[in-house]
């Protein structure tokens, strides 16, 4: 039997901040998690529980108080372009055009190569014709696509996405989810995707990690073995969704249960 | 709206002119002149021939002093905002020099630069004073502009391993640009205000010299006429800067209007 080494490995991640008054705020409580190469994993949890913090540690923007994240068996020390973070609020450069934004991380390639790569991702995100547009001329959904394209263009094998669709309207989110799954399949990336939307997590993920209230510990890891695109009426889909609601202490309409 | 704005502006200006006229009624040229005497003085200056030469001399000095201040002040300000090491090295010096009025430097400037001839005698001392007057607001603006850059943009650069000149020119400078431009506009205003003082000593041309010279000849009508010219050119320069500022901002969709 071949033992598959995980792509990302969280080993006993602990994180606490010391507040100004000296009190210690524990944010993450011994998080252990393995993520396989090419897997799409969603992290759900209540607001303020430490989801962004966990993602920042995985990417190397923040050091854990103790424990270690390993990527391809190498401890994460600082961020690099093999794993790109996508922000909760859009961070496309407003002063660069769409194609300049997408080409931003492409330094060590020839201009022709760069042009080809940029063009490829512009087509992938469906923004042909907007190459020379500035972000202010784009809708929120288009800007988020540019951000995703910029991340992909530098050729990472992992995407860390922190509620990337959080600021979009319902219909745009639905469309973006489908497109994101398409991109993930085409590009074969490993994706760690934070959301507080349970439905979103079940529509996207291979596995859903449920975090507890702060300090965040892993409450459950739920497998989503359903064919894509996900059928939102499938009883199995609904069962998994409700199971995650249960783990989050919500009733089956997503409303907080009385006694937790 | 636009019509009301212009109308009220004209009303305010007319009221001022009326009060000025009444307060200075009966004054001659050796006293505080009224609006009519000032207008006559303006015509005399404009037709006398030297006015255009003086305007050019003054604008020339301000542009040089200001441009040098931009060339030095923006990089220094950016560096102070960017590098803690550089800030600790330079900031005490900057803060120590800042409270000294540029006019206090006048004797030193004339002593050092007075003998040197460039465009015409003593241009350099006036340029030096204007440089001093405008560099500090520029440094301050550039420093706080860098400190105010949204960290998410810097994190994108870190994440994609983009560094060096590319970060400077594609992230830091454009992100800091709106605030730097506001600082430049402020600095140009200060430079123009300081000009008259800078041309008080050791120069033989310019609007500041005109004021000083007319005073010595007891021609107060020409003093006030020169003040009017200074006002008009000052507003023009500010208008140009405002235009540059706005066009730079609108290109990134963050214009005020
Ligand atoms: N620098 C810091 N110092 C102190 N406390 C911090 C710091 N950064 C984050 N925290 C705390 O850590 C907790 C987790 O923050 P985090 O941003 O990871 O939450 P989140 O799960 O992403 O929330 P949301 O769903 O609202 O985005 C919060 O309670 C926050 O107050
Ligand atoms: Mg968050």
TrEMBL record, chain A:
Superkingdom of origin organism: Bacteria
A molecular function GO annotation: ATP hydrolysis activity
SMART domains per record: AAA
Pfam families: ABC_tran
ATP-binding among keywords: yes
Keywords: ATP-binding, Nucleotide-binding, Transport
Matching SUPFAM superfamilies: P-loop containing nucleoside triphosphate hydrolases
Name recorded for this polypeptide: ABC transporter-like domain protein
UniProtKB/TrEMBL annotation, chain B:
Protein localization: Cell membrane
Every ABC transmembrane type-1 domain range: 55-241
A single cellular component GO annotation: plasma membrane
UniProt keyword annotations, A-Z: Cell membrane, Membrane, Transmembrane, Transmembrane helix, Transport
Family annotation (CDD domains): TM_PBP2
Record-annotated membrane-spanning stretches: 6-24, 36-56, 62-82, 103-119, 125-146, 183-202, 222-242
Topological category with respect to the lipid bilayer: Multi-pass membrane protein
GO biological process, one term: alkanesulfonate transmembrane transport
Primary location recorded for the protein, binned into one broad class: membrane
Pfam family membership, one: BPD_transp_1
Annotated InterPro entries: MetI-like, MetI-like_sf
Family listed: Belongs to the binding-protein-dependent transport system permease family.
Full protein name: Binding-protein-dependent transport system inner membrane component
High-level lineage: Bacteria, Pseudomonadati, Planctomycetota, Planctomycetia, Pirellulales
């Amino acid at each position: 039997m071949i033992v598959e080494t995980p792509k990302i490995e969280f080993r006993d991640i602990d994180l606490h901040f010391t507040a100004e008054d000296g009190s210690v705020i524990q944010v993450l409580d011994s998080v252990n998690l393995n993520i396989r190469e090419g897997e799409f994993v969603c992290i759900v949890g209540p607001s303020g529980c430490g989801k962004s913090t966990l993602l920042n540690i995985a990417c190397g923007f923040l050091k854990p108080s103790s424990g270690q994240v390993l990527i391809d068996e190498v401890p994460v020390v600082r961020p690099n372009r093999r794993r790109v973070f996508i922000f909760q609020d859009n961070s496309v450069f407003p002063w660069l055009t769409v194609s300049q934004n997408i080409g931003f991380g492409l330094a060590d390639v020839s201009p022709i190569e760069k042009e080809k790569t940029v063009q490829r991702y512009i087509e992938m995100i469906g923004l042909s014709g907007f190459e020379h547009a500035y972000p202010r001329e784009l809708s929120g959904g288009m800007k988020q696509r540019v951000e995703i394209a910029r991340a992909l263009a530098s050729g990472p094998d992992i995407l860390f996405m922190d509620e990337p669709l959080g600021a979009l309207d319902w219909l745009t989110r639905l469309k973006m989810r489908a497109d994101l799954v398409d991109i993930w399949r085409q590009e074969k990336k490993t994706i760690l995707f934070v959301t507080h939307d349970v439905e979103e997590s079940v529509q996207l993920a291979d596995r859903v990690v449920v975090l507890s209230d702060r300090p965040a510990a892993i409450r459950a890891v739920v497998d989503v073995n359903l064919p894509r695109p996900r059928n939102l009426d499938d009883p199995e889909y609904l069962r998994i969704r409700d199971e995650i609601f249960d783990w989050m202490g919500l009733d089956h309409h997503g409303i907080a249960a009385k006694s937790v | 709206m636009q019509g009301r704005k212009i109308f009220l502006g004209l009303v305010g200006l007319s009221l001022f002119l009326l009060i000025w006229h009444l307060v200075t009624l009966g004054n001659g040229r050796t006293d505080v002149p009224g609006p009519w005497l000032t207008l006559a003085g303006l015509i005399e200056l404009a037709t006398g021939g030297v006015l255009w030469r003086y305007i050019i001399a003054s604008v020339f000095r301000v542009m040089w002093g200001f441009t040098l201040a931009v060339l030095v002040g923006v990089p220094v300000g950016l560096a102070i905002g960017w590098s803690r090491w550089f800030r600790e090295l330079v900031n005490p010096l900057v803060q120590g020099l800042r409270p000294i009025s540029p006019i206090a430097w006048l004797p030193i400037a004339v002593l050092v630069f007075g003998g040197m001839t460039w465009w015409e005698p003593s241009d350099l001392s006036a340029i030096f004073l204007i440089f001093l007057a405008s560099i500090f607001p520029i440094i301050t603006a550039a420093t706080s502009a860098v400190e105010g850059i949204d960290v998410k943009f810097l994190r994108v650069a870190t994440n994609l391993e983009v560094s060096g000149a590319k970060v400077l020119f594609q992230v830091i400078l454009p992100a800091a640009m709106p605030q730097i431009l506001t600082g430049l506009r402020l600095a140009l205003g200060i430079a123009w205000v300081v000009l008259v003082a800078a041309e008080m000593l050791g120069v033989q041309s310019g609007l500041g010299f005109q004021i000083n010279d007319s005073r010595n000849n007891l021609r107060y009508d020409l003093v006030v006429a020169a003040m009017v010219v200074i006002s008009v050119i000052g507003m023009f320069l500010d208008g140009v800067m405002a235009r540059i500022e706005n066009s730079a901002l609108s290109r990134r969709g963050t214009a005020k209007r």
